Amino acid sequence: SSHEHKLNFRKSKEACLSYIQDALLQKQWKRAAEFLTCYVESLEKDYSREHIGPSEMIWRIGTEILWHHSQSSMKEFNCFMEQMKTLGVKRYLKVCLEHVFHLLCNGQIDEAYQNLSLAESWRFGEQTAIQDKEMKLIEAYRGLLDYYSWSKQKNILLEHSEDGFSDLAVEQEMHSYFRKAAVNLKEIIKIPGVWDVFVKCYVDLLEFYGDHNEARQVLNEYAYNSKFPANPNAHVYLYQFLKRQGESKKSLISALKILHDIVPSHELMIDFNTMLQKSKKRKKRRLGLEVIFAALDYAGWKENAKAWSCLARQVKQIVTSEKHLDWIKQEWNSRKDWWPAFHFSRYLAKRNWQENRSLSYEKALVAGILLGKDCKYFKYVSHQGCKAQLKRFRMLKKFVNRHNPVYLRISG
C-alpha cells in the first residue's frame, strides 16, 4: 500500500543516513561513499508524493566525502559540484562559493576566478534578490582575487623599478586590477559583519596609493561602528595602521585599551604593557601592571619569557621604591589561591630551569616577591643558579631575601 511504502521508505532512508553519519564520524570515507550511493538510488526509486528535499544533504555529505576520499580527483569533485548547482536554485550561489573555495585550496586561481565570474552573471527571477547577500560574497571574493592579481603585478613593477626599468604595460594592468578590486572590496565591508581579509586587502590598496584618510576611515568604521559585531582583529588592524602612520602614543594606547578589554590574552598586550610602563602618568603605569597580570592568567602565556620579564621589571621597580605596593597586593589578592599551583610549582621550576633559564630567572623573581623566600619555585631556581655559579642568580637570591618583608605586607 501507499502508506506502507512511505513508512518503509522513511525507515530505510533514516537507517541509511545513520550509517552514513557513523561512517563519517569514523572517517571511513569509502564506506560513507557506498552508503551515499545507496541513498541517492533509493531516492530515485521513490514513487511517494512526499516532498523529501534531500539535495542540500547530498551536497554537504558528498562534498565532505570527496574532500577526504583517497581516490577522489579534482575532475570528479568539479563534476559533482556542477551537478549540485543544478539541483536547486536556492543553493546555487552557496554551492558556487564552496566550489571556489575548493579550487583555491588546490591552487587553481584562474578556475576559481572563472567560476566567480559565471556566478556573478547568474540571474533567476526573484531568487536573485533573495540571494543578494550571497551575490555580495561572490563579488567580494572576485575582488579578493583581483587584489591577488594586483599584488603580483605590484611586485613585478617594484622589481623592475629596482633594476632601473619601468614597464608601462604592467603598471596599466596593475591599475586595472586595483579598480576592479577596490569596487568590490569597498562594497562588502559596508555590510555589518566580520570581513577581516577584505578589510586588510582594501586598506593595503588605499595605503599603496597614498589614500591614508580613506584607510583610516575604513578601519575606524570597522572597529567602532556598533552595527558591526565585536571583533578583536578590527582593533589590531587599526593599531597596526596607526603605528605605521607614526601616530601618538595616546592614539596607540587608546586602540590597545579596547583590545585588552575584549581579549586580555592577546599577544599585543606586551606592546601595550611596555607603552604604559614608559608613561609618566601613575594611572597608566597601574594599568600596565593590571594588563600583564591579566595576560599571565592564561595558559598560553605560562612560558612567555617576555611577559614574565615585563612583570618582573615592574614588580622590582615597585619593591625597590616601596611605592604602590598596594597595586601588587590588589592584583595578587584575586590570584594567590591559584597562581602558586598554576605558575610556581616545584615541577615547573625544574622544567623551566632545564628548558629556559632566562624564563626561570624572571619567574623566580616574581615568585620570591609574591610568595616569599620559602616559595618552592624560588628556592629551587635560586639554588640551581647559585650551584651553577651564575652571578645573576646569586644577586636574585640576595634581592628577594632583602625584600622578604615586602612579601609579608603583600600577603596581608
Automatic annotation (TrEMBL):
GO CC terms of this entry: RNA polymerase I transcription regulator complex
GO BP, sorted A to Z: transcription by RNA polymerase I
Alphabetized PANTHER family for the sequence: TATA BOX-BINDING PROTEIN ASSOCIATED FACTOR RNA POLYMERASE I SUBUNIT A, TATA BOX-BINDING PROTEIN-ASSOCIATED FACTOR RNA POLYMERASE I SUBUNIT A
Protein name, as recorded: TAF1A polymerase
Organism: Rhagologus leucostigma
Organism taxonomic ancestry: Eukaryota, Metazoa, Chordata, Craniata, Vertebrata
Gene (UniProt): Taf1a
